[in-house]
Design goal:
Length: 408
């Protein structure tokens, strides 16, 4: 019979027992600089649209999380659709310029095929991806665009990026970390990647339950719902559709506490667990293509030639910021650090224009701490005070002001 929604919820303490012996996931935090706030939220997603209500055996939340953890799917191919609505202002093409220009393309020595720039395009709008994988050493991701395609291919030690619009190629080599390390380092592209990030949030401040079933990409799935117990978070709920046979997350959904449409929606529209043809991962630069070789051997790079997605602990995070501290707990965690600028937004002749531009994107606030500017999306908010202190997290504006007032 199909599982029914239950008023009984599972918390971290109840989930830990079946996860004994496995590595604990790092605590979920969002400590990012203000200009990186939007990009850092792409690992969270929204609304499951199901077509049918499959009849499946009952399963508990703890059992379903264990099923996800034990999923060993390494071979698959399919189509993924991702829609992101962070509520960012229209910057008149600035986003794409930052992605393909500042990080590649027209940038000095860069390439429009460099994945470090191209994958940031997923931060807004709707995109269609074709994905394929055959174990830890062969993966391919293709971003389909209007009359063009961007492909990212990992085959053994070679990583290739190809932008058909500009006929540019990016090439790098990776010295193989083991499969588990590669999985941690690769850029998120599938519901499984997003689900793993969201499940790191599960602790005593979290409610977890099985809420019925869904039909996704032609496959029967359980619906796992993760919700903050605390008030003050911008996260409403995360829904994960889990394939009942393989335990692979097929769709990942995040809705904001403010209501409305989902912040991001990522899910398979087609999926096959057959082994992809070996030719899928073969690549030869087209005739006349501009090839850029990545020779920066001193960078720590993961799968697809991309730097690791993020620090693994608060101690690691602190290394990149001046006096980084984590305030609160669970979904209400706030990261605070000093920008070292001795002031808020840039001012004076050099910073005047930038001050006005950034100020127009934010909201001026006051409190016991003084004055500051809040920059917000539908998911992540950040406060910069007049003395250059930053408070950021998946919390409301009022929560940031309260933390600043406390002088923590």
């Amino acid at each position: 019979m199909a599982p029914h929604a239950s008023d009984d919820t599972t918390t971290a303490g109840e989930v830990e027992e079946p996860r004994a012996g496995r590595r604990r996931a790092a605590r979920y935090v969002v400590p990012v600089t203000v200009m990186g706030v939007a990009a850092a939220t792409i690992g969270l997603v929204p609304a499951l649209a199901d077509s049918g209500d499959p009849d499946l055996p009952d399963i508990t939340a703890a059992q379903l999380i264990e099923k996800i953890a034990q999923s060993d799917v390494e071979r698959l191919s399919g189509t993924v659709r991702i829609t992101t609505d962070l509520g960012l202002p229209n910057l008149g093409g600035l986003e794409s310029s930052l992605a393909s220009g500042a990080l590649g393309g027209d940038g000095e020595g860069g390439s429009s095929a460099d994945p470090s720039g191209r994958l940031t395009e997923l931060v807004s709008g709707t995109h269609t991806l074709r994905v394929a994988a055959d174990g830890p050493d062969r993966q391919k991701l293709s971003l389909l665009e209007n009359a063009a395609e961007y492909s990212l291919i990992h085959n053994g030690k070679d990583v290739w990026g190809y932008d058909s619009a500009s006929n540019e190629v990016y090439h790098a080599t990776v010295d193989g970390p083991d499969a588990s390390e590669r999985r941690e380092q690769r850029p998120p592209a599938t519901p499984q990647d997003f689900a793993e990030e969201a499940l790191r949030a599960v602790d005593d401040t979290t409610s977890v339950k099985v809420d019925g079933t869904a039909q996704v990409a032609g496959r029967a799935a359980y619906r796992l719902v993760v919700e903050p117990k605390q008030s003050g978070s911008t996260v409403g709920a995360v829904s994960i559709a889990v394939d009942h046979e393989t335990g692979l997350p097929l769709k990942f959904t995040l809705t904001p506490s403010s209501g409305g449409s989902a912040v991001v929606d990522v899910g398979f529209t087609e999926v096959s667990f057959d082994r992809p043809d070996a030719s899928t991962f073969e690549f030869t630069p087209p005739k006349g293509a501009k090839v850029t070789e990545d020779t920066e051997q001193d960078r720590e790079r993961g799968d697809f030639g991309k730097p690791e997605r993020g620090p693994k602990s608060e101690e690691d995070l602190a290394k990149g910021f001046d006096g980084l501290k984590m305030l609160g707990e669970g979904w209400n965690t706030i990261a605070t650090f000093d920008t070292g600028s001795g002031g808020g937004l840039p001012t004076g002749e050099a910073g005047g224009d930038l001050d006005g531009f950034l100020g127009s994107l934010g909201e001026q606030v006051e409190g016991d701490f003084g004055t500051g500017t809040v920059f917000g999306t539908r998911l992540v908010n950040a406060l910069i005070t007049e003395d250059g202190t930053v408070y950021v997290g998946t919390v409301t504006k009022d929560a940031l002001v309260k933390a600043a007032d406390a002088g923590e």
